[in-house]
Design brief:
By secondary structure, the protein is mainly alpha-helical. The chain is built from eight helices and two strands; from the N terminus they run H-H-H-H-H-H-H-H-E-E. The protein has one domain.
């Protein structure tokens, strides 16, 4: 029951965010933001690496959009929000869209739903579609099986 309710709330939040956004993104813009946001999943042992993706037009546009939406990245030591941040508060914010206040409750079901294989499959599925549309075929994305990313390791 709680799982279904949370899933509906997540879908409603995504829909509401798109409707409230004064900016209408093109397919390229949405793809670029997905690619830029996903670069943190890449490391030097994978193929492609960050260095393969960074020079692409999609990455550059994704960075531009991210900065327009959220502002420039603030160093952690200067970020008042991060000074209050814990893993639990981060999970709460991910589930409910705001910092927890006294009396707010984060249940196991909330965390389990957010980190479910279905949610990861949806997230990585969108990323892989964007990747296939915008990046050269030589830059293959990681494969996802049952919600788990399967890495392609470099030479």
């Amino acid at each position: 029951m709680a799982r279904r309710t949370l899933l509906k709330r997540l879908e409603k939040a995504e829909t509401a965010a798109k409707e409230l956004s004064p900016i209408q993104f093109s397919r390229f813009d949405e793809d670029a933001l997905a690619i830029y946001s996903a670069v943190s999943y890449l490391d030097a042992t994978m193929s492609p690496t960050y260095h393969d993706v960074e020079p692409t037009a999609a990455y550059a546009r994704g960075k531009e959009i991210r900065n327009a939406i959220y502002g420039p990245i603030i160093p952690a030591h200067s970020n008042e929000h991060l000074k209050r941040y814990t893993r639990a508060t981060g999970e709460f914010e991910l589930a409910f869209g705001h910092e927890p206040a006294a009396g707010d409750i984060l249940c196991f079901d909330h965390v389990a739903q957010m980190h479910s294989p279905e949610n990861y499959s949806r997230h990585f599925g969108r990323l892989m579609q964007a990747w296939r549309r915008q990046l050269p075929p030589a830059h293959l994305p990681p494969e996802v099986r049952r919600g788990t990313a399967i890495q392609a390791f470099g030479p």
